[in-house]
Every structure is written in C-alpha cells, then in structure tokens.
Write a structure and sequence with these properties.
Two copies of one chain form a homodimer. Chain A is α+β, with helices and mostly antiparallel strands. Chain A contains eight helices and four strands; from the N terminus they run αααααβααβββα. In chain A, a hairpin with a 2-residue loop joins strand 2 (150-157) and strand 3 (160-163). Chains A and B meet through helix 1, helix 3, helix 4 and helix 8 of A and helix 1, helix 3, helix 4 and helix 8 of B.
C-alpha cells in the first residue's frame, strides 16, 4: 500500500489544495463508515487510496504555502492554513483506520454496525445501470439537490475518483455514484441509478 | 482547559458510548468549521469542551470494553470497536485543532474561509427568539427532515449541549439550534427560529 515515491513540487494554488483536502477527508469518513457497514473491501481499498492521495496533497500544499509566504504577516496567516490542512490529514487517517478494520477482517462487531446505522440512511453508493435515465445528463441540469435533496459527493469512473463533481460533469454508464442527503432522496437516487425509477420528480 | 480529574469507571453500554463518540466527533468538525468561518470564539470554546467530553467517553468506553470481553472471541470483536472509538477521538482532536486557531487569534486566512464556504450553505446556528413558532414544539412533530430537508443535530440550552436530540425533545425559548441540511432548508430554519418565518410549509 505504501508507495515511497518522491513527491515533487508542483505549483498549485494553496486554496484549491486545501479545499480538495477538506472535501476528500470528509468524504472518506462517510466512505469508511459505509465500508464497515456494507463490509465492502472495495470501498475500504478506495479509502486507503484516498488517504495516500491526501498525504500527497498535504506535501504539495506545504511546499506551496512556504513559497507563498513573502513576509512575516503572510507566514502568520498561512500557519492557520497549515493547521487546517493537518486537521484534514488527521481526519483522513482516522477514516483509513476504520477502513483497515474491514481489510484486516477483524470483523465488524454488531455494536459498530449499530453505531453506523444512521450513516446508511443518508448515504448511497449506486452504480449507473444501462437503462438509467441519468446517463448523458449533466449534474447541474439534474438539479438533484433542489429536487430530491441529494448531493452527488463523488463519482468513481473506472479507476478514477471524481470528488465533489461540478455541475458540468456528465453521468456515464457504469459510473459509481456516491450520494449524500435526506433518507427519501437517498432511496430515489438509488432507483434512478439502477433504472428502477424512470422519472425525476420535482 | 485541561482538567486532570480522575475518570472513574461507570457501567455503560459500549454501543451507546460509541454512538455518542461518533456523533459528537462528526458534529465537532462542522462546529469547528463554523467557528472558523464565523470567527466565533464561543463556538470554538464549545468545540474544545466537546473534545474533553469525547476524551472522557473514550476512557469509559475502554474500561467497559475490557469488562465486556469474556473470551478471546469477544476480545477480537471488541478490538474493532476500540479502533472505531480511537478514530472518532482522532476526528475530535482534528476539530479541536481547528477551533484552537480561532481562540489563538492566529487569524483566519481568506483561503481557509473560502475552503469552508460550502459548510456555511449546509449548516446553520440560530437562536430561538421569543416569537418563534418552534417554541414548545417537539422535534418529532415538526418533521423538519421531511418538510424542509433539515436535521437538528444539536441544541445548546444554557450551558448544556444536547447532541442528536431525539424526536421527543421540545424546543425552548433561547435554545441555540445547530441544523444541517439543504441550503434552502437552512435558510428556512433560521427564519423559523428567529421568528421571521411564521409558518412551516409542507
């Protein structure tokens, strides 16, 4: 799992790096809980991969923050950024710890399952089937948040994760959608992805 | 901030302790982001208090888990519980780190504020004003989740926090409600608490 590749400096806006770290680490918590709840090794492996990605982002953010600091005032302000980045990293580590239980097959105690039950109500993971009406639609045009109170927080397309997809992202066949929202909406998005629901109600 | 009181064993179900740790730590992340976003020392202090509470729960959970293990099989299963509890504790620490920035007045860099902007859309903190229609109503009867897509995730009543309040919890005047949900619902719950919205639409 651990790749000891050298992480090279890439010029990237610190803001974008921080937003990505924060969004991914929050998503990872939900994914890790889901992995434990559904006993999904696949999902647990996704979490560990994302954890590595967050580590890489943390390094790149550190380098860019250092280069961004021109004077003492900048440095002071940027310390806050690095604290938040470190917190996101800690959250990502916590998610990886939970995912590791699934992979180590320690077994999920019924107590843990109960503790995670509320997660199940507000999170769905559904693969887009060939007869889903979502295929070819842009997320922004679907207006899922307004219509059914659901946000698509990630899409797994083949090996690639799209975290917090933008409105112009199009749904592809076989995409795995990770959605978060109100319990009723969660049921509806599953049906829409799987093709059992053929109409998106307002 | 740090109280070095002896934490004594209390017999409590491990399940309840784990659920509480998980719920509080997740809430703390949102509260910490809000504290940074709204530059609220009060909210930041709440987070640090909750962090101490989570630490205490972790100790009590540890003691109860040890006493619950009767044989090797129990012990194996309970290791998973302790990993999840440790993860919740790590998340709570991360939230406290963020809250500490607010209290240390390092200053919130505009970059951090931007990274937290999405939190603002899905989280509200509103005090219940004397002419709010919510006063005296039970949460379960209000059906906020079904009607406006909003969950009350915590209530601060005086010095006391009620985390994940149950349906039979009644809203009091001056309660501070922390709500999470869809952006439109978030605006509505603020209005309902503050008395500017006098009707809960279906």
């Amino acid at each position: 799992m651990v790749h000891l590749e050298k992480i090279e400096y890439k010029p990237m806006p610190v803001r974008d790096l921080l937003v990505e770290m924060k969004d991914i680490s929050e998503l990872m918590i939900d994914l890790a809980y889901s992995a434990a709840l559904f006993h999904s090794r696949e999902l647990a492996e996704d979490v560990l991969e994302l954890e590595e990605h967050v580590d890489t982002l943390a390094y790149i953010l550190g380098m860019n923050a250092m280069l961004a600091a021109r004077d003492a005032e900048d440095a002071e302000a940027l310390v806050g950024v690095s604290v938040v980045a470190a917190a996101a990293n800690k959250i990502s580590d916590a998610a990886a710890d939970i995912a590791a239980i699934v992979l180590q097959e320690i077994g999920i105690h019924p107590i843990v399952r109960e503790a995670f039950q509320k997660v199940e109500e507000r999170l769905a993971r559904a693969q887009v089937k060939p007869d889903s009406i979502l295929i070819g639609q842009k997320l922004g045009e679907l207006e899922l948040a307004a219509k059914i109170g659901v946000d698509i927080i990630a899409i797994r397309r083949g090996k690639k994760w799209i975290i917090n997809p933008k409105g112009d992202e199009t749904v592809h066949k076989e995409d795995v959608l990770v959605a978060r929202g109100a319990p009723l909406g969660i049921e509806e998005i599953k049906g829409l992805a799987e093709g059992t629901v053929q109409k998106l109600e307002d």
